[in-house]
Amino acid sequence: MTINQISIFIENRKNALSELTNVLATHNINIRAMSLADSSDFGIARLIVDNTEQVQAALERSHYIVKATPVIAVEIPDEAGSLNKILKLLADNGRNVEYMYGFTGRKSGSAYMIIRCTDIPETERVLEGAGIRMIGQNDLADL
Hints:
The chain is of the alpha+beta class and 143 residues long. The chain is 29% helix and 39% strand.
């Protein structure tokens, strides 16, 4: 079970990020999670949103380069050591985490980690086998 992450390439210049978030605000798009990475010339904003198709279309109309990528979202107890247990499970099963970032929802006692791994189906099998709850795109609106 995956969710779609929207990756947006943005120039590394003054106001570029606020221009991006202005497009999202104008279209009444709520950001569930965001990660930002940069280099000297450009940045990549990674977003988790409820409706990826709507967001992708709005951003493309505003001349952004956008890509949707499947990622795994896992629910973890919001307590010390929870993330380590999942990362150890993945490492022990030969899964490579390329990047990750987290967010919390309105549901108390839980946190959510976005994980981008090589071989998503195998990673999902490992997580399911350990009883770790993954959330899908349709679950985002209920968090």
